[in-house]
Amino acid sequence: VSTHHPDYNQLVMMAGSVLSSTGDMAEAESLFLQARNEAQNQADKALASFNLFQIRLRCQTYDKALADLQTAIDIDSQRYALHHVDKYPIQQILGAGGMGCVFLCHDQWGENKVVVKCFWEGRKGRRETVFKEAMLMRNLAGDYVPKPIDCDYTDTIRQERPYFVTEYIAQALDGEAWLAQHGKLELRTGLVVGLHIAKGLQVAHKKGIYHLDLKPANLLLKQTQTGLIVKIIDFGLARVATSLKQQAVMTASRSDKSVFAQHIFGTLDYAPPEQLGETRYGQPGAKSDIFAFGATWYRLLSGESPRFPHPSELPNVPELQSLLLDCLKPHPEKRPDIDSVIARLSRLLETQQLKAGDVFQQLKPGDVFRDPLKESGFGPEMVIIPAGQFRMGDIQDTGYDDEKPVHEVSVKSFAMGRYPLTVGEFRQFVEATGYKTEAETGEDTYNWLNSPYSQEDDQPVVCISWNDAMAYIDWLTQQTGQKYCLPSEAQWEYAARAGTDTDYWWGNKLGQNRANCSGSGSQWSGKQTAPVGSFEPNPFGLYDTAGNVWEWCADGWHGNYEGAPTDGSVWEGDGSLFVLRGGSWFCVALWLRSSFRYWFQRTIRFRDYGARLSRIL
């Protein structure tokens, strides 16, 4: 057909649509490019650009797809914009699925990044009704779902092209991307993640809200120092988007301009029979989410498709296999309810934590581990410290009288924090308990949230008293079922020396850029804390034992070592003064020596006071 034929452009786009429906993306893309280049008017150019956008979405060439969409919007935003782009300008395409397309946008009002989910199809009705469930999920924000921010129709008159706006969680991966990068979840992590998802479903079900599209791609996972953060996305959107049943019966005979809308992204492997038109199983509801939970959890634990689940792909834990297969039963009435799922999961997690003691018998000195928490996430990274003997005190005779007499101490194997306690780890405790530090309840200018310098989650927490450190330890012990404590003074020096007799574990001179203290040559020297792990570890694998922050010990203060224990145990005092070790970013080099001792009242909380944990094995 000649390019001058009056129907040329229409015929080319029809051919492109046919080719795309057969999966020939390359030829379809070529035809749409040709149609755009030969377009006789702006309307045809916009339509060709929009079809190119959809083709390139399917090919996951998102940068090109975004440029195509922007071309179409620039010509006719009323027809081709998928949301109010003047309010939320697009920065990036994050992905696309069966329900719609997801953009990273800039919030012109809030001045921050947000996620905008735009739907290919949607139910019509009053915005307050259609989006009611999604906005109700605001009450779950922070724990189980990203915070909802806004919702609307792009075409408010026709009630078409609905979109939904949530907070953006940087560096998070969806479940499928996580599996591709990190592989399947190990057992304890899988149990914690499964329990967290189930609790999110429980809260929603109590409000009468069902997800109805739960799958790995609708989970966001982000690794932090305190563990794996899990958020459920698209919660409450079942009322907004077309159902899985409707998606399953979509055909290429649609009159809609969208080529991409004719293609069903993803898989229906996670949907129960009642969502796929099996009327004998009744209407979709709470038990539909149980099936999807089982399928999703199977995928995360096995790395395999849930289409044909088999126990051999799962961890060899019969109770886990039984629970998961119960969730996947075809008949909804035979599936457990969410309360039962949570009860069984909790018992499984408790059993695994009890078995954790057996695991520690296999660990060797230098190995790093983290205890899972009952609610979600993990405790701080801990290092196995070997049993041994050492000389404690001012071996080099460069110190003070309170570091004498030098004496021999025997220490049993224990675990020590790989790093000082971090802001992120302390924040997890505060968010779980509502705890207020003594600096917050007093009249202090600064506290752990408001220090005189910038404090990120990977920096050591400061402005905490001995009492604050003990409150965190009590919570961590309760959460893990393991005995955490502050190290004894002997344990601290033994771990800091790591088999050395010198003033510092690396020698008798401070040197340059070895630690964070006044005059150390680091970028933080004498100014503020450094992110934990910014310097080399000692031979035991511990970071920041010299400098950065002072670390509270369990021992009461004694003016010298006369009568000190020789078995590494805590030396009790009168309860008024407690020992601090390690020096800080604010200190001179002499105070960073492995043998240097300091003291203060248990309620004191300066801007360079932190903590490091120990744990009984």
Task: Write a brief caption for the model.
With 617 residues, this protein is α+β, with helices and mostly antiparallel strands.
Count of strand segments: 19
- Helical residue percent band: 25-40%
- Beta percentage is 15-25%
**Level-2 CATH architecture of the largest domain:** Alpha-Beta Complex
Number of helices: 17
CATH class label of the largest domain: Alpha Beta
By CATH, the superfamily of the largest domain comes out as paralog of FGE (formylglycine-generating enzyme)
Radius of gyration in whole Å, from Cα? Answer: 30 Å
When the domains are counted, the total is 3
Tell me, rounded to a whole number, the average pLDDT. 88
Shape: elongated
Distance between the amino and carboxyl termini: 80 Å
Helix vs. strand class: alpha+beta
Topology-level CATH name of the largest domain: paralog of FGE (formylglycine-generating enzyme)
> What spatial order of strands do you see in the largest sheet?
1-2-3-5-4
Q: What are the segments in which pLDDT stays under 50 over at least 5 consecutive residues?
A: 247-266
The biggest sheet amounts to: 5 strands, antiparallel
